[in-house]
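A further point concerns the way the authors explain their paired sequence and structure data. Since the whole study asks how a given chain folds, the encoding of that fold should be made plain. A single example would do more here than another paragraph of explanation. An entry of this sort, consisting of the sequence and the corresponding backbone structure tokens, reads as follows:

_____
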Amino acid sequence: MVGQDGGVVGEWGAEAWDARVGLLRALSQGVTGWTESVRAEIDGTAAWPDPDIASAVSRLREQLTQPEDIAALESVVSWALSGAIHTALVALDGGCDGCPTIDLADPEGRTLGYALHEHWPDFDPRNP
């Protein structure tokens, strides 16, 4: 079976597959959005209201004076966020000691299935 995105649908059915894809796309957009937020902070085109973060950004802004410096920071932030999402998905899949498998379901009760973390590389914005 093929989902709306053209991908092969597993045993979960088209609707649950589309919800699974929606979750992974939303996580991917989160990585992209937060990475862009960091760039905007460093560029000075945005201001974070938290004074501790504003102070840290101010210090970084003083040190990151070249475009390649800012790009390097963006790469590290994107890598860290992607890693955190992958870890969370592994935990949901029961892949961490002491963490049971958590079966996510859409509003109609259809399971999004297991092995969510195995599909993350297909949605990770760092991958072309």
